[in-house]
Write a structure and sequence with these properties.
Layout: H1 2-24, E1 27-32, E2 50-54, E3 63-68, H2 77-84, E4 97-99, E5 118-122, H3 147-160, E6 168-173, H4 176-183, H5 185-191, E7 197-203, H6 218-230, H7 238-241, E8 263-268, H8 272-279, H9 291-295, H10 302-320, E9 329-333, H11 344-347, H12 360-368, E10 375-377
GO cellular component, one term: plant-type cell wall
Signal peptide: 1-25
Pfam family, one: PAE
Length: 400
């Protein structure tokens, strides 16, 4: 009996391993942009920026998909100093190879519209969603706040390697990278030839300005400090910074309507990162009443669900400030999730989340190629049985 159980376990692990290998495909090696160092375009610790590139082929040889890595932000010298010694602040801490999955997958069955494009994952090592630019290096901590320079140096490197001949191009990103894909959308378009078909995708990047559960303005204060620390104001939309304080111009709801390039917003209405870190951050919940709920939405009390339903309504109000545009796409599901384009099971698998009987990968592909517009907002939790609701192990983990 014991041997049979062990055999079944090993068989299950083998099948799981094969499935992961099949869906993720080959690992993609890292490329360091060494030439960026001379331009001062460096990570927090002064190391060169980096990206991973799986080259396009066949019909996709002149199509480029740029995926900006996420991973939160740092808002002051102390938090940036901690970040400096991780892969989110130093390219020497980054792994040399990463698997490409979801929107980056190289297999047609798992990524039917973009599998043979040039697919690039730009590593995130500045802590400002690629917006910072402070000329002086912090003398005590030796910190470099140069996210905007990193962005431009990586784009220039890719343009020199063939992206200047792009026929199709997408700027995408998840979380802090999803915010960056909004902030840099029009400037990305401006880098490419006039005839290029260019669109942007923001996955879990539509962070909203709302009060936390204690009634405070935690995220607004955080973004104010972030923008001041990184010198980001000059790299935010002038049409926004000319009429409101720069920290507010880090919120998509105040700038997204002014983005002229077609933009697709993918977001959970109950974004698990926003609920954990904007609605109910630890500082606003000193007694830990929200800890169990933040780990698993099934643990939430009815009173907490009501607060989350109110958060959803605030999210939708902020989202609708985008205004109406036939060129925009929208996939707003009612899942407790965060980042749904990079995980294969959420992007395009047999049991992926559905809206209007459509998977995210299909909705995005139809929108990009103008086969079918897609602007759908899900009904309220718990109405969608196709959701993959996130369950967390670590109640204090800040990043997805």
């Amino acid at each position: 009996m014991l041997n049979t159980t062990r055999s079944c376990l090993w068989l299950w692990l083998l099948v799981l391993g094969l499935l992961l290998f099949t869906t993720n495909g080959a690992y993609v090696p890292i490329t360091y942009v060494q030439s960026a160092v001379a331009k001062g375009a460096v990570c927090l610790d002064g190391t060169p920026p980096a990206y991973h590139w799986d080259k396009g082929y066949g019909t996709g040889i002149n199509s480029w998909l740029i995926q900006l890595e996420g991973g939160g932000w740092c808002n002051n010298v102390s938090s940036c100093l901690v970040r400096k010694n991780t892969h989110l602040g130093s390219s020497k801490r980054m792994v040399k190879q990463i698997p490409f999955s979801g929107i980056l997958n190289k297999k047609r069955i798992f990524n039917p519209d973009f599998y043979n494009w040039n697919r690039i994952k730009v590593r995130y090592c500045d802590g400002s969603s690629f917006t910072g630019d402070v000329a002086a290096v912090n003398p005590v901590a030796n910190l470099h706040f140069r996210g905007a320079r990193v962005w431009l140096a990586v784009m220039e490197d890719l343009l020199s390697k063939g992206m200047r001949n792009a026929e199709n191009a997408i700027l995408s990103g998840c979380s802090a990278g999803g915010l960056a894909s909004i902030l840099h959308c029009d400037s990305f378009r401006a880098l490419l030839p006039m005839g290029t078909k260019v669109k942007c995708i923001s996955d879990a990047g539509y962070f909203i300005n709302t009060r936390d559960v204690s009634g405070g303005h935690y995220i607004q204060t955080f973004f104010d400090q972030l923008v001041a620390t990184h010198g980001s104001a000059k790299n935010l939309l002038p049409s926004c910074t000319s009429r409101m304080k720069p920290g507010l111009c880090f919120f998509p709801q105040y700038i997204a309507q002014q983005i002229r390039t077609p933009l697709f917003i993918i977001n959970a209405a109950y974004d698990s990162w926003q609920i954990r870190n904007i609605l109910a951050p630890g500082i606003a919940d000193p007694h830990g009443h929200w800890e169990s709920c933040k780990l698993d939405i099934k643990n939430c009390l009815p009173s907490q669900i009501k607060v989350m339903q109110d958060f959803r309504l605030q999210f939708l109000v902020a989202l609708l400030r985008l205004g109406k545009s036939a060129s925009r796409g929208m996939f707003i599901d009612s899942c407790f999730a965060h980042c749904q384009t990079e995980m294969q099971e959420l992007w395009f698998m047999q049991d992926s989340p559905l809206l209007n009987k459509t998977k995210i990968g299909k909705a995005v592909g139809d929108w990009f190629y103008d086969r079918n517009p897609f602007q759908k907002i899900d009904c309220a939790y718990p109405c969608n049985p196709t959701c993959h609701n996130r369950v967390y192990d670590d109640p204090h983990a800040p990043h997805s």
